[in-house]
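Recall the central idea of this unit: under ordinary conditions, the amino acid sequence of a chain determines the structure it adopts. In this exercise we apply that idea directly, starting from the sequence alone.
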Amino acid sequence: MRFVAKTLIILLCLTCFQAVRGASWVKQDAGTLAWLHDVYFLNEKKGWIVGSNGEFLFTGDGGRTWNKKKQFTEDTIREVHFFDEKNGWLLCERDIYSLGSDAPSYLLTTSDGGETWNTVNFTGDVRKRITRIFFAGTDFGLAIGESGLILSVQESGSVWKRMPSPAPYLLNDGMFINKERGAIVGGGGTILFTEDRGITWKQSFVSSNANTKLNSVFFLDERMAWAVGANGNIYQTINGGRVWRKQTTDVSANLTDIFFLDTAEGWAIGENGTVLHSTTAGNVWTPSESKVKHKLEKILFVGKSGWIVGFGGTVLFYEAGNVPDNSAKTAPQIKRRN
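Accordingly, the structure predicted from this sequence is:
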């Protein structure tokens, strides 16, 4: 009996191991070949995917199916953000070959859940491309872009104020940790942090930094964060962004985005279908099969379900049932949407 019990335990452990080991990203048919740039979920059911040529996809069933909404712009939609079920913003980009007197970037806003959209232009002489908008709560936000451009907006969302540039490089991504503290990353190895809502920015110390272009930053909490960039580089901070240390990935592909579910488990994505997985806070990164060779743009988890979007209409879904259970996990956050 004791032998049988031990045998059953071993078989059970092997079965669990195989289930975890077999967990994989599954390609979804989103009905589009557009270059998809962003994915955002308001809750576990409602989500949006946006991309080139005004591509705008919606799900009301937790991402099991995606429906194409009626086209309301032919411009590229770089980013989507909803504050609630009614109010949302899109960051859009015009074709650089037909700009004329128009600025390259502008916003579309909705107050009826995306049924209708209104154009909001960045005020002032803003002729530089905006790469990212992010918010500290619902009453303050920043827009960042080329040549170190930073703009701030108050609750109304109609008047954007140019702020002193903290760096001369392209700024690619940013995130607020709370209503005062945040960080931005960009070209030339730029990592800057603020403790006063962006009035002033301080240069972070980055170990082994060879002017690596950084594309994305993700804060799990007020202490722990990761940033990814060119040539497979990943950096981690454990003191709120003041000091960053390089992690080892053994890949050379440019990395575009990163997401952590908790203090141990995280994912990084990039060009050539690169997907990396870590269960050790990034101290060890393991390649994960994506079955695509396209550039992957954004990754997001809601609960235990994950999505990756990218070039060629790529939508990858991580089956919730295949995510290894971890009792130490904290409630996952929606990426950079505070």
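The mean pLDDT is 87.
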